[in-house]
């Protein structure tokens, strides 16, 4: 299908900072977004505010509310995410708990009217995640097979997180998808996570890995020669800020228990093309490989993570929606994208570039 613009629901402001879900949806619709990746945090926040608090019954009711709010604004719920810390757990009792949680997420997805659940690669510390690739594959086959029994079937989209314990490159996620070998199990390509692993190093004074340009060129060549675009379920296009100083002990973002890329990711991601905010990753080259090289068409999400999302300033949702729409306009222009039912807001943004 032609490309359509989406955004992660928390990328328009965090609920704990006072940014209401309905206002965020208003801003998304106003600025030309066509769909949202629903972050479970937003759903649970609505459930908690219902009489009785965050019970499973209230989560189902929250899902009904969200579906209605989105329908009223002509917004599609692209997926429910993130179903995280799942595959290859060393503690198999924890694995069993995740399976029980998934059964409930099936109900949430069906209530929301989406058939897609996103699974980020497991980024618990290495001692909690087995290095047995066959175990990871078996675990992921299990949820895919469970999804196929649902009516309608549930699909899963797997994403390599740049600081993942065992899967932290797109190559490993593609190997995983091929090994799982299920019709309802595919890829999410996140331009940030691709670049963050092979190009960026927030602990370096340069912000870059050694031979970063060569690494990106070689990775793009592999992508173009190996990936089946039919297995890409959607794409997240995001950049990030180059830090003024290395993210090491003493830096304001440093957290001893967290990988540096994780701390940087949560605070410093930027929309596509935001060089005025310090964006520096090779996102244009990676995006061209995906959209022009592979010919991907479908949902494109602006999944921002940035400190600004947690500011209590009531202007945050409108600001971030506007910035996201401007980034989309740049992407449409740079990639020469064919866009489904181009909203007037995006047309204006393209014309203003």
Automatic annotation (TrEMBL):
Recorded hits in InterPro entries, A to Z, give: IolE/XylAMocC-like, Xyl_isomerase-like_sf, Xyl_isomerase-like_TIM-brl
Give the UniProt keywords, A-Z: Isomerase
In which domain of life is the source organism classified? Answer: Eukaryota
Single GO term (MF)? isomerase activity
What Pfam families does the annotation carry?
AP_endonuc_2
Q: Domain Xylose isomerase-like TIM barrel: where?
A: 26-320
Q: Tell me yes or no: is Isomerase among this UniProt entry's keywords.
A: yes
Protein name, per record: Xylose isomerase-like TIM barrel
Instruction: Tell me which species this is from.
Output: Microdochium bolleyi
């Amino acid at each position: 299908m032609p490309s359509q613009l989406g955004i992660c629901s928390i990328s328009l402001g965090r609920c704990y900072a006072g940014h209401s879900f309905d206002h965020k949806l208003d801003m998304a619709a106003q600025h030309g977004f066509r769909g949202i990746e629903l972050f479970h945090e937003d759903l649970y926040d609505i459930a908690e505010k219902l009489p009785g608090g965050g019970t499973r019954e209230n989560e189902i009711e929250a899902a009904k509310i969200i579906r209605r709010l989105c329908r009223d604004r002509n917004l599609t719920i692209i997926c429910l995410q993130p179903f995280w810390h799942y595959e290859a757990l060393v503690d198999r009792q924890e694995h069993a708990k995740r399976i029980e949680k998934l059964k409930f997420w099936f109900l949430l997805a069906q209530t929301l009217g989406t058939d897609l659940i996103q699974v980020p690669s497991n980024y618990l510390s290495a001692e909690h995640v087995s290095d047995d690739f066959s175990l990871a594959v078996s675990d992921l086959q299990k949820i895919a097979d469970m999804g196929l029994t649902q009516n309608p079937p549930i699909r899963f989209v797997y994403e390599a997180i740049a600081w993942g314990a065992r899967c932290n490159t797109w190559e490993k996620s593609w190997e995983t998808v091929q090994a799982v070998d299920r019709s309802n199990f595919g890829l999410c390509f996140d331009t940030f996570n691709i670049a963050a692993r092979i190009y960026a190093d927030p602990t370096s004074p340069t912000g870059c890995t050694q031979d970063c340009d060569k690494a990106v060129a070689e990775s793009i060549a592999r992508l173009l020669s190996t990936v089946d675009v039919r297995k890409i379920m959607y794409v997240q296009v995001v950049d990030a800020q180059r830090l003024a100083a290395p993210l090491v002990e003493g830096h304001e973002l440093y957290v001893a228990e967290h990988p540096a890329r994780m701390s940087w990711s949560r605070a410093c991601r930027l929309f596509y093309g935001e060089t005025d905010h310090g964006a520096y990753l090779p996102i244009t080259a990676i995006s061209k490989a995906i959209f022009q090289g592979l010919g991907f068409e479908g949902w494109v999400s602006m999944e921002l993570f940035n400190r600004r999302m947690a500011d209590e300033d009531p202007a945050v949702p409108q600001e971030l929606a506007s910035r996201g729409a401007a980034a989309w306009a740049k992407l449409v222009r740079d990639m020469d994208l064919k866009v489904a039912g181009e909203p007037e807001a995006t047309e204006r943004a393209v014309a203003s570039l």
